[in-house]
Amino acid sequence: MRNASSQRGASLPEIIVSSAIMAIIAVSILSLTIVSSSLSRRASYEYIAANIAKSRIEDARGLIKTSGFAALTNDKYGETDTKLDQSGIPDENGDFRRTTTVTTNYNSNVRLTSVSVDTCYYLNGKRSKRLINMTTLFVNM
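RE: above sequence
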């Protein structure tokens, strides 16, 4: 039989210290995961907002092809703070906002029309700090 003094094991202070180290590691990994998830979601929303702006520019191009430049005026095509879902479809509960501005006779040139689209998003109820803007010029030949 072995003597109690010859048995090897962990003492209470060693267990407490190792538990504290494990807790610090676990909290660090958890906070890293939360930050990573937040950044990933924000990047996804920025990508969607850019695609919404790009889609609006392409819609303007299609409108010119089907209806001509007369259909592309700020009164007919412009919009202010339209609420959209992730697909770019108008939705009162959407997380995205889009403003479209059409400038005819751009830079005093009667042949140029500018279409500018600004998009932003709301993430966790807060408006994005970054505004995504896409602008293009159309030439009426």
